[in-house]
Amino acid sequence: MKLLFLHRRPSLTSYFLTFSFIIFVAVLYTEDFSCILRQPFLHPQGLKHPTLQQQHDHEVAAFAVGESEKGCDIFDGEWVYDEKSRPLYAEEECPYIHPQLTCQAYGRPDNGYQHWRWKPHGCSLPMFNASLMMEALRGKRMMFVGDSLNRGQFASMVCLLHRIIPESAKSMESNYTYQVFKAKDYNASIEFYWAPFLVESNSDTLDGPKGNGTVVRVSSIYKHAQHWKGVDILVFNSYLWWMSHAKTKILRGSFQDDTKEITEMENEEAYSLALRRMVKWVEKNVDPHKTRVFFTSMSPTHRRSKEWGGEEDGNCYNQTAPIEDPSYWGPGSSKSMMRVLKNVFSTSRVPITLLNITQLSEYRRDAHTQIYKKQWAPIPPEKLANPESYADCVHWCLPGLHDTWNELLYAKLFFP
Asked: What are phi and psi of 178, to 5 degrees?
């Protein structure tokens, strides 16, 4: 017996059912389809997320007035001695510099560190324009969040801008953890907020750590972040405090608990957790069409001159010129911590522009405050006889290197 398969034309009912099914699926997955259609064609190596200094090609970054030169990496270059255009201001003309950074006032005999200008290879930095910067800040807030190195960058920015503001129209409110410079005519403020770990720690107050030493709550950021809301330009930094010990002490629970559970964690792991907490806050609270977020990379130290071919027991003391070896990378800058920055920020859904100041600052062994700053306690005679023993090879004189960091910030803000 043969079975006959009859080929019939599909009925109108079949067409209708098929069409209805397609419509149902399209409605069900409309959001997914629309997302796919909005995506650019994928590179064979995978889609690159628009973080760090990268932006979506079809978007204009907030505050941008132009574009950077194609193929120009402003963080790759050399230091050029320039007595004509440097420094950008005089130390004595800016009353807002912390006494920890006023090197000339505390007897530094040379001033060559003030005259070095950063020149990127194959291109140039846009000239810092205080009027343009203040107009961009009209009705807005700019905040530096982090440790004393970020406070130096904050002071530098204020020094670069305050001269165009009448004396009667500017003010500075200051305490250890929070400083606010206000420009009345612009309804603008430039602020510094002390948070050396970004997340909560027992180093958040003037009292400093006690008992167990420095302890960090890597899961707690709201205590600080509530003060960052509504800020239009955020400039974060956090590094040096993470490296103060071989491992980071982590608090499980609250500092108010009578019994505290403290464990230890590798610095890189703890750093990553804190940065991820910061990124989550940025994603939830920042509108990238109105606000710009920056992160200043690690600031190097120069505590051992033998690392650049100097004396066995020396450091930054008496150094008066930059390191000339373009490949120099000192032991004070952790490449593993730098990789943590890259890995964490690559996941952010909101662009975070990395100000990669580490390599260019590595060369500046000459720019530290050395012994020429306010000393908060008397120096014992045996140390006075050996200046290297108390030289500060962490912080930087102003005017000086911090001003270059702000020139780079200026470039990335207006010409991303």
From this structure: -150, 130
Residue pLDDT, tens place only, 237-261: 999 999 999 999 999 888 877 777 8
Distance of alpha carbon 365 from alpha carbon 232, whole angstroms: 34
Four-point Cα dihedral 390, 215, 358, 330, nearest 10: 50
- Any idea what DSSP says for residue 69? P
User: Which two structure tokens, joined as six digits, stand for 353?
Assistant: 């522009």
Cα–Cα distance measured from residue 246 to residue 347, given in angstroms and rounded to the nearest whole number = 27
| DSSP character string of 277-320 | HHHHHHHHH--TTT-EEEEE-PPP----GGGGT--TT--STT--
| 368 residue type, one letter | H
301 or 46, greater pLDDT: 301
Q: Nearest-CA neighbor of 276 among 202, 203, 355, 352?
A: 352
How far the first Cα of the chain sits from its last, in Å, is 79
Report which residue type is found at 76: D
Helices (H), 5-140: 12-28, 30-38, 130-136
Q: How many CA atoms lie within 13 A of 181 on its CB side?
A: 25
Q: Give every CB contact of residue 120 below 8 A, 6+ residues apart in sequence.
A: 72, 73, 74, 75, 76, 77
The pTM (predicted TM-score) of the whole model is: 0.85
Residue 411, burial from CB neighbour count under 10 angstroms (0-12, 13-18, 19+): buried
Measuring CA to CA, which residue among 167, 98, 24, 128 is closest to residue 398? 98
Tokens at residue 222, please?
């709201």
Q: In 3-state terms, what secondary structure has residue 293? A: strand
Structure confidence at residue 9 as a pLDDT band (50, 70, 90): very low
Residues marked as catalytic:
148, 392, 395
Q: Which two tokens stand for residue 138?
A: 């009209």
**Could you tell me whether strands 188-194 and 141-146 are parallel, antiparallel, or unpaired per DSSP bridges?**
parallel
Beta bridge partners of residue 183, listed in sequence order = 170, 188
Hey, what are 20's tokens?
């209805």
Rounded Cα gap, residues 153 and 159, in angstroms: 10
Alpha-carbon distance values, 310 to 284, 318, 324 (Å): 49, 11, 13
Comparing C-alpha atoms, which of 234, 236, 126, 130 is closest to residue 190?
Answer: 234
Name the β-bridge partners of 172. 181
DSSP SS3 for 378: coil
Which residue is listed with tokens 């204020």?
158
